[in-house]
Amino acid sequence: MLLEKKSIIITGASSGIGAAAALLFAKNGAQVVLGARREKELGAVVGRINRSGGTAVALPGDVTDPGYADELVALARSEFGGLDGAFNNAGRVGSGLMVAETPPEEWSDILATNLTSAFHAARAQIPALLERGGGTLAFTGSFIGHTATLPGMGAYAAAKTGLIGLVQALAVEYGSQGIRANALLPGGTLTAMAMDAATNPETEAFIAGLHALKRLAKPEEIANAAMFLMSDLSSFVTGSAMLADGGNSISKV
After folding, report:
1. E-state strands within 43-127
2. Hey, which of 91, 130, 142, 165 has its CA 20 to 30 A from 195?
3. What are the pLDDT digits (tens) for 188-209?
4. Can you tell me the distance from the alpha carbon of 96 to that of 36, in angstroms, rounded to the nearest whole number?
5. Active site residues per annotation
6. CA atoms within 13 A on the CB side of 154
């Protein structure tokens, strides 16, 4: 029970890594506040947790809305008395257009979803964490924009690179007050965001070949890494960009 009685917000929790993290954190004793845009899918995750003896509540919404981050914190306070941590996981890849072909609106939307939303989250969550004497923040980044990128990922790469800078700033600014902040950088993972790789065996095989382990991750494997960052097992880890990428970053064959 690594997260016993900890109140934790998880965004992007309706499917994929976020849903896997919600189930895992609750199984390990956390009281989870789940956020995502898709109300029906979010409710299904909450139902699974509560039926299995865990504790979960949810609030549908859009992480690009600054007020939504405040509402999630308010829900954690009202339901669980405060906030101990957050796994800010929501993200969006984009349409795969090259930089010169990307409409400004799409660029802005991808940065809003992957980077500016993290600022909104931290701004809302840090005061609540300080009320508890500290806590833990984790943000889902990517190997893209850190060790490599792919064609058509310009905005996504820029956002995820910026996210690492934000995490480092948070770690430096609030470490003395008991707050740790880290970025989790998954490799290819079998989620809806994997798009064609999740349904096309040829695409999956190609992307798997980019990894030293020659396979894609299951969402549960990335959730395990997130739980490490959220738990006291990582008590001296802050400001890191922690790769959980199956060796994607070091594989050239």
Report:
1. 55-60, 85-88
2. 165
3. 999 876 555 556 788 889 989 9
4. 23
5. 156
6. 12
